[in-house]
Amino acid sequence: MFSKFEPYRIKTVEPIPLTTRENRQKYLEEVAFNPNCLKANQVTIDLMSDSGTNALSCKQWSAMMQADESYAGADSFYTFETTVKKITGFPFIVPVHQGRAAEKILFKVILSETQVAYSNGFFDTNRVHILQNKVKAINIDTEAESCDFMGNIDCRKLEEMLAKDDQKVGVVVMTITNGEKGGWPVSIANIKEVAAICRKHNVLFYADACRFAENSWFIKTRENGFRDKTPSQIALEMFNEFDGCIISAKKDGICNIGGVFATRQRDVFEKFSQECILAEGHITYGGLAGRDLEAIAVGLTEALDEHYLQHRIEMVQEFGRMLELNGATILEPGGHAIFVDADKALPHIPRNQHPAWALTCAIYVEGGIRAFEYGNIKFGYKDENGKELYRHPEFVRLAISRRVYTMSHLKYVAEVFGKVIQNASKVRGLTIVRSPSFLRLFTIEMKEV
């Protein structure tokens, strides 16, 4: 069996910042032990996010050079629109500057106060935008402890909840892949069953489809009847079940900025368009330059390439195995990231000293690696008196940028984890010094215990 390799050649290179352990300790103290506030030139391997951190292809750069920068009705918009229509099948398309702009506008125009929204796993900005409309956001994830599609929604529970009072349900959102649940995929069978339930109860069914291409690959390789279909064919079959979708082009658009709103509902499109003009700009540019629209059109197509997807998913899976060999306990790998169990890595640190946050700090000091806390700082549960609750498991997310790092970079990351875990007793917990009211992990200030 031949060795696996990246299905591309490297034409342009970017130097990686190299720092000393002493300097990294100083940098971390200067930002109040919040790795999210570090300068990029202080980070050696950056696995904080796979959003907008991708490497563009030669075809994308070429398309950008030919972009039309007209204010309205630019040729670049129609290139973008044609590509999105071909991939999704939706007739009404609006570009936005990124996915969270689409979700903010969408939830504003389709939801009303006192309603409820359900999902297999709301992304954090999804949840905040829904809550800002005074709507409850409730996850109904799968009960399966282990299966090929652990990102699924529990259809029995969904049916029960809709049967109680479907008039109060504003929307069901299917996140694909389920980023809040390990980047796990959703099956087409589950999507079709949820769509049927929503139609029965006359409830809107939308997709947060920022990783639709990765989800299509999991369906192709795991779900019966799809082995001989292309990722493009599978994606179209998925989208056919929804009333519309939002897409962050910073993920499976393989771009650095941009997003998509697409729907088959003219009334929603018209309301969305008016809000877009107010907040994002003309509906044929949506806060983007023509060159961004061109890059997205190419990136969405490249994201569905079978060779790219096979390498992408296998790279993440192999990274997970390397981490396990170095002593880490991980969630079942999904499509875009590995989630490391911080409770197991740092068993001496109690929940109220935030072991996942401590682990992100430790791997930065040890090896210059920036990761993302997926624990009780991110999810921020509090009781009615404002007292901290510790309901969420403590994980560290390592998100893999598309076409940026090689396996040797990820091998280094795994080795750094191994050293931190071997010397776990030296890692100290942290307490909160200052915290904003929501999405606090981006600007929170901490101190070591």
Automatic annotation (TrEMBL):
NCBIfam families per the UniProt record, alphabetical: PRK13238.1
Gene Ontology BP terms: amino acid metabolic process
Protein family (similarity comment): Belongs to the beta-eliminating lyase family.
Listed name of the protein: Aromatic amino acid beta-eliminating lyase/threonine aldolase domain-containing protein
Source organism per UniProt: Potamilus streckersoni
Source domain of life: Eukaryota
Stretch forming the signal peptide: none
Protein's UniProt keywords contain ATP-binding: no
Keywords: Pyridoxal phosphate
